């Protein structure tokens, strides 16, 4: 079997050839953050398959192409304050932390509703080194309400499917900010790119169809049955 590092390089090359990875920063982040730290031990040999994998508690780590595409769509920059809703394994948060940490004022706040996953994510993120760890804060709670305490944010990324764009997230986005969020029903969602103009006006554009686990909470789905 190829080493994890070699598998990671091959995956990144493939995502570049497919036109999913476009920017230097996203390429660097995907090459620098080891996905094998974020998948359960018995699935480690599949860490570089371009597919979602189970992480326990009925949840998943998103496929690498989805992480790359969402990060590109987010147009995240060094120094940004980013909110991620749906920490899961912590992989997407670590990718974002790699980029924002290139300027000292950058930070990633990531919120997860299932405490067990949040604690595990924190440990996974710590495996990526002090720098990534220092630029990331993991919070347990209902991220459909956003995270008022550290708002406003330059960027917001939601990695669970919402029935509509939660109002608190729009309010917590800075003017000039961008949010990426899957919106739709159980089996069909569209990745939406929501931009808040400097005049406060909201413009929404559809990216690609996608399938995520549900955003469960006050401004998401009330429970799994409803999804
Ligand atoms: N970004 C993650 C990663 O890199 O591994 C994958 C996220 S997984 C597809 C979606 C996550 O959203 C799950 O861990 C789920 O528990 C979480 N979630 C669902 N509703 C939530 C809510 N209201 N607030 C916070 N997290 C939520």
Descriptive account of the structure:
It is globular and about 50 Å long. The protein is an alpha/beta fold. The protein has seven helices and nine strands. It has one domain (4-210): Rossmann fold, CATH 3.40.50.150. The longest helix is centred in the first third of the chain and has 14 residues, at 4-17. A hairpin with a 4-residue loop joins strand 7 (173-184) and strand 8. Bound molecules: S-adenosylmethionine. Residues 59-62, 85-86, 88-89, 91-92, 111-114, 117, 142-144, 159-160, 212-213, 215-217, 220 line the site of S-adenosylmethionine.
Total strand segments? 9
What is the average per-residue confidence, as pLDDT, rounded to a whole number?
Answer: 96
> Which consecutive residue ranges, at least 5 long each, have pLDDT under 50?
none
How many angstroms does the end-to-end distance come to? 40 Å
Secondary-structure element order, N to C: HHEEHEHEHHEEHEEE
- CATH third-tier fold name: Rossmann fold
Major sheet description: 7 strands, mixed
Shape: globular
Class inferred from helices and paired strands: alpha/beta
CATH superfamily: Vaccinia Virus protein VP39
Strand content: 25-35%
Say which molecules are bound, naming each kind only once.
Answer: S-adenosylmethionine
Report the C-alpha radius of gyration, rounded. Answer: 16 Å
The number of domains: 1
Total helical elements: 7
What is the CATH domain class? Alpha Beta
Helix content: 25-40%
Give the tags.
Rossmann fold; 227 residues; single chain; alpha/beta; EC 2.1.1.77; binds S-adenosylmethionine; protein-L-isoaspartate (D-aspartate) O-methyltransferase activity; seven-stranded mixed sheet; methyltransferase; Protein-L-isoaspartate O-methyltransferase; globular; two-stranded antiparallel ribbon
């Amino acid at each position: 079997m190829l080493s994890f590092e070699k598998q990671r390089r091959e995956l990144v090359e493939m995502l570049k050839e497919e036109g999913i990875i476009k920017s230097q920063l996203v390429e660097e982040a995907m090459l620098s953050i080891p996905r094998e730290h974020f998948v359960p031990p018995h699935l480690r040999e599949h860490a570089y398959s371009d597919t979602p994998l189970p992480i326990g508690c009925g949840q998943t780590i998103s496929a690498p192409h989805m992480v790359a595409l969402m990060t590109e769509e987010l147009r995240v920059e060094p120094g940004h304050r980013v909110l991620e809703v749906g920490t899961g394994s912590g992989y997407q948060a670590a990718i974002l932390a790699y980029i924002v940490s290139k300027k000292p004022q950058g930070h990633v706040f990531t919120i997860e509703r299932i405490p067990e996953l949040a604690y595990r994510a924190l440990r996974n993120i710590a495996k990526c080194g002090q720098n990534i760890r220092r630029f990331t804060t993991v919070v347990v709670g209902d991220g459909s309400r956003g995270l008022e305490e550290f708002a406003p944010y330059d960027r917001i990324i939601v990695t669970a499917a919402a029935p509509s764009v939660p109002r608190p997230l729009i309010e917590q986005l800075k003017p000039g900010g961008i949010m990426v969020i899957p919106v739709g029903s159980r089996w069909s969602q569209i990745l939406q790119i929501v931009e808040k103009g400097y005049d406060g006006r909201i413009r929404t554009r559809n990216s690609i169809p996608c399938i995520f686990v549900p955003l469960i909470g006050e401004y998401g789905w009330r429970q799994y049955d409803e999804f």
